[in-house]
Each structure stands twice: as structure tokens, then as C-alpha cells.
């Protein structure tokens, strides 16, 4: 809500809300955690879908599902604020289950509306805490089964931290996910711990090159060197690559020329509502 100015104290997970024109008596505090719990219960979260573009054919390969929270009084609260709170409080488990179910429901709904099995997948983010505390493979199996979807329609996006914290558990979960035919993407690749041994041991299908390297790659030699290195590493290991944060046609062209498989970024599209994402897919296929 525009009349509120929000100041959030990230460390404490609390939000302070000020109403302009009123003094400290009007100052309210609320706990982001309590509000988030309520939002999950009341189904106030939604998903936005950002297109993932095949850089060779320029067609839509899939979409990344991104959680959105529009608080009824306080307006949009970005994932960079509520995901950490969800992780600290354990709410990431129900939130993550909801994201899987809602993504699978949306894919099934698109199939139903178009009368065919659409050749697109959805990427769902899985946090390290969720991987630790929940049976993610069972959650994926449930979401697929309930919606009659093949496992190849889902890609689970994990960060390096999810693997480093418990490599044995991560290995078991990833193996179970592969048995469902789902794919695994390493998200924000290059920003975590640079222990590359796991790339050899785990069934990873896609490396997602972090936006921080993509943004600067045309201006900055170090960034382009890192991007080239990730592309050649992925190629040598038989993995696909997705570049995040493509904001210009130059970046799209350069990454395509370097052999990057897939692109994601504002140049193609911002995260869209489920309806707009389906329209985008159909328009781009036409
Ligand atoms: P991520 O998984 O790396 O997702 C990509 C983020 O980059 C998204 O931010 C997306 O909107 C943004 N982005 C995409 N293209 C561009 C671009 O061209 N320029 C710029 N400046 N940004 C771009 P978003 O939606 O704010 O999400 C932030 C992070 O929150 C995600 O990063 C992910 O780590 C986390 N997140 C979002 N939804 C979920 C969820 O359902 N579960 C979990 N565990 N994490 C989630
Ligand atoms: Mg992601
Ligand atoms: Mg990412
Ligand atoms: Mg990122």
C-alpha cells in the first residue's frame, strides 16, 4: 500500500511500518514471520513465471517459477526479504511444497487449456534448508502425480550451499529426483563455494550462470573469462547452461555465439503472471 513507508530490519525478521503524517504512536511493528505464516495459510502467495529461451532456436524452453507475496496492507514484499525469513523459521518447508504444487498445477492447467502436452518445463527453486528438512523427492513425486505430469516437466534449482551442507543427503535426494525423470539445475553457479568435486559426483543437468557474471561480461574481461570457463566446463561435463540476467540484445547474441544453451532475463521478459506466461509462450511459438 503506497501510503505506508516500510523499513525492514532484516536481522530480526521484523518489519517496521510508518504511516506518514502520524507520529510514533501510530508506528506499528509486525513480525514478518507471523505474517508469512498467515500468507501461506490463506493462500496469499502467488507465482510469477519468467521465460527461459533456447538461444539457438529462440523458442521458449520453459519458465522459472518465482514466489511473489503481495501483502494485503503493505504491498509487495520481495523474495530477497521473505525467503531468508522463511528459511530461518522453517516456513520454507510449507512454502517450498506450495511452490512445487502450484507450479505443477499451472503446467497442467496450461496443458488442459491448450489441449496438448506443452513441450516446456518449469524450474522450481529449492532452498538448502528445504533440502535438509523436507523429503523433496516425495514432494516432487506428489506434485507430479496429483497433476498427471511427467517428471521431465520439472527442473529443481538448487544452490551450491544446498549440496555443501550435507553432500550425502543431497546425493540421495538428487538420485531420487533423477529416478522421477526430473532435472537438476545448479542455481547462481559461481557465487558459492568453489568446490567443484560435486559436479562430477552428482547428476546435475544444467549450470545456471549467475547474473553477476552476465551483467558485466561485455565491459569486464574477468566476467567474460568466468562465463567462458563455465560454458566450457559444462560442455566438458555434458551439462547444459542457462545464463541469468540477460538485459540486452548484445548479451543475448554474445551468449548464443559462445554456445550458452538457454537465456533468461528482462531482455526476453520479466517474470509474468501464469496467464501472461502462457500468452507469451503461444505468441512466441506462432
Ligand atoms: P534466482 O533463483 O536466482 O532467480 C532469478 C532472479 O533474478 C529473480 O529474482 C528474477 O526476477 C531476477 N531476474 C531475472 N532476470 C533478470 C534481469 O534481466 N535483470 C535483473 N536485474 N534481475 C533479473 P526474484 O524473483 O526477486 O527472486 C530472487 C531469489 O529469491 C531467487 O533467485 C531465488 O533464490 C529466491 N526465490 C524466489 N522464489 C523462490 C521459491 O519459491 N523458493 C525458494 N527457495 N527461493 C525462491
Ligand atoms: Mg532460481
Ligand atoms: Mg538463479
Ligand atoms: Mg540469482
Automatic annotation (TrEMBL):
<feature type="domain" description="EAL">
    <location>
        <begin position="29"/>
        <end position="285"/>
    </location>
</feature>
<protein>
    <submittedName>
        <fullName>GGDEF-domain containing protein</fullName>
    </submittedName>
</protein>
Amino acid at each position: 500500500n503506497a501510503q505506508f513507508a516500510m523499513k525492514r530490519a532484516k536481522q530480526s525478521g521484523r518489519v517496521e511500518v510508518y504511516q506518514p503524517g502520524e507520529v510514533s504512536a501510530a508506528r506499528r511493528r509486525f513480525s514478518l514471520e507471523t505474517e508469512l505464516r498467515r500468507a501461506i495459510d490463506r493462500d496469499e502467495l502467488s507465482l510469477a513465471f519468467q521465460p527461459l529461451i533456447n538461444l539457438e532456436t529462440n523458442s521458449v524452453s520453459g519458465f522459472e517459477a518465482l514466489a511473489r507475496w503481495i501483502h494485503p496492507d503493505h504491498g509487495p514484499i520481495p523474495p530477497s526479504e521473505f525467503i531468508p525469513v522463511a528459511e530461518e523459521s522453517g516456513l520454507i518447508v510449507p512454502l517450498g511444497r506450495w511452490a512445487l504444487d502450484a507450479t505443477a498445477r499451472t503446467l497442467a492447467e496450461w496443458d488442459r487449456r491448450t489441449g496438448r502436452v506443452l513441450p516446456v518445463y518449469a524450474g522450481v527453486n529449492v532452498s538448502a534448508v528445504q533440502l535438509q528438512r523436507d523429503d523433496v523427492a516425495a514432494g516432487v513425486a506428489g506434485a507430479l502425480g496429483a497433476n498427471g505430469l511427467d517428471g521431465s516437466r520439472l527442473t529443481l534449482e538448487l544452490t551450491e550451499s544446498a549440496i555443501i551442507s550435507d553432500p550425502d543427503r543431497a546425493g540421495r535426494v538428487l538420485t531420487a529426483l533423477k529416478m522421477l525423470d526430473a532435472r537438476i539445475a545448479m542455481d547462481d553457479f559461481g557465487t558459492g563455494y568453489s568446490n567443484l568435486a560435486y559436479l562430477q559426483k552428482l547428476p546435475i543437468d544444467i549450470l545456471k550462470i549467475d547474473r553477476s557474471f552476465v551483467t558485466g561480461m561485455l565491459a569486464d574481461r574477468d566476467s567474460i573469462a568466468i562465463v567462458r570457463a563455465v560454458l566450457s566446463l559444462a560442455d566438458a561435463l555434458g551439462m547444459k547452461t542457462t545464463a541469468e540476467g540477460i538485459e540486452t540484445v548484445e548479451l543475448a547474441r554474445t551468449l548464443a555465439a559462445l554456445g550458452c544453451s538457454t537465456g533468461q532475463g528482462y531482455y526476453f521478459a520479466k517474470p509474468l503472471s501464469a496467464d501472461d506466461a502462457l500468452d507469451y509462450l503461444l505468441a512466441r511459438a506462432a
